[in-house]
């Protein structure tokens, strides 16, 4: 059996770390299967809400997934499948599993309040099933349009969850779900099941907030004469303080993380490691993450999304990046000064764009920070004629012997004068890249 999973985002907003994590777990599970090609990752655009769905957000979904390396094997558009959903509706009606209900939202809310006041569960009482044909015609004559509910069998629906173990939902405690609104629009539940059947989805992997939905959907699978897929319900993300993710944590959309300079490999490594027994460190590739993925590594408590962890991941990705990978991006920044330059600066980067600063320090003009010109003049007089990667150590030893300066009092003034910065990469290779002519001018307090 070929594993087939699906990721079904709605094009009604930007993808954020929460729904990308769900998509990523699906991708890792599929691509981690044995065999040359692994499983199949299906991208299904859930655009049944025609009013809120936009082409801009749809394009954004594809851009984000591609940038993260989460390429898809198949792509489907739910808005193109309305006739298929209508056929399923007719089948459910014919089987007596879909029935019209005419209550307004106000009436339903009032009924729930009464039930709660009586100590009863706020479950729909199926009053619509008691309506006669004459009753329905009278309501429609008033201008009412029905919404359509799926009649649950009312039983214990059980499955073995890949993430949670044995699970069950008692559908006698649930209201018959609305599958079609008064305006004829399909709600999420029915198209999802129909598509999972038609697209031969073998595993549905989603957040644990869908556990109850799964009990309902398994009944719909059965009502349509189909075998339900396997399920995995993973824990949700919380903030580093244990509270739910919110705007106070900053922007969590993938687009904004990209614009803030986070690396795609850092983002997917971070999301793949959260809430697992794996170390919080970047993988060499997203394929490496897939090869190591196991539901058994995932904890039962919510994963904590910590920006500090992401920042460390991002720095680690940059520090390990080879010149061949960095070169095209350095070129786009106008900062490609060769492999020696990249190897000299990469261990100091927290964002790739920071390379521009060091390209300017090495190949452009820097304004020296001068506090003690006499000290710098003494140091300049001792600067060797030829500079290489070993010059810094020998030169600073000579300056130390001549001036008595040591520690920060020795190294910091030289760094500030030569780079115009308080901190940065190791000065050994940097000094050689700056060159003797520029170094002497900067030690003299001149921009160079």
TrEMBL record:
Catalyzes the attachment of glutamate to tRNA(Glu) in a two-step reaction: glutamate is first activated by ATP to form Glu-AMP and then transferred to the acceptor end of tRNA(Glu). Keywords: Aminoacyl-tRNA synthetase, ATP-binding, Cytoplasm, Ligase, Nucleotide-binding, Protein biosynthesis. ATP binds at residue 247. It catalyses: tRNA(Glu) + L-glutamate + ATP = L-glutamyl-tRNA(Glu) + AMP + diphosphate. It comes from the Bacteria. Pfam families: Anticodon_2 (PF19269), tRNA-synt_1c (PF00749). Belongs to the class-I aminoacyl-tRNA synthetase family. Glutamate--tRNA ligase type 1 subfamily. This is Glutamate--tRNA ligase. It is found in: Cytoplasm. Signal peptide: none annotated. Its EC number is 6.1.1.17. InterPro entries: aa-tRNA-synth_I_cd-bd (IPR045462), aa-tRNA-synth_I_codon-bd_sub2 (IPR020751), aa-tRNA-synth_I_CS (IPR001412), aa_tRNA-synth_I_cd-bd_sf (IPR008925), Glu-tRNA-ligase_bac/mito (IPR004527), Glu/Gln-tRNA-synth (IPR000924), Glu/Gln-tRNA-synth_Ib_cat-dom (IPR020058), GluQ/Sye (IPR049940). A motif ('HIGH' region) lies at residues 9-19. GO terms for molecular function: glutamate-tRNA ligase activity. Residues 3-278 form the Glutamyl/glutaminyl-tRNA synthetase class Ib catalytic domain. A motif ('KMSKS' region) lies at residues 244-248. Monomer. Residues 373-444 form the Aminoacyl-tRNA synthetase class I anticodon-binding domain. The lineage of its organism: Bacteria, Pseudomonadati, Pseudomonadota, Alphaproteobacteria, Caulobacterales.
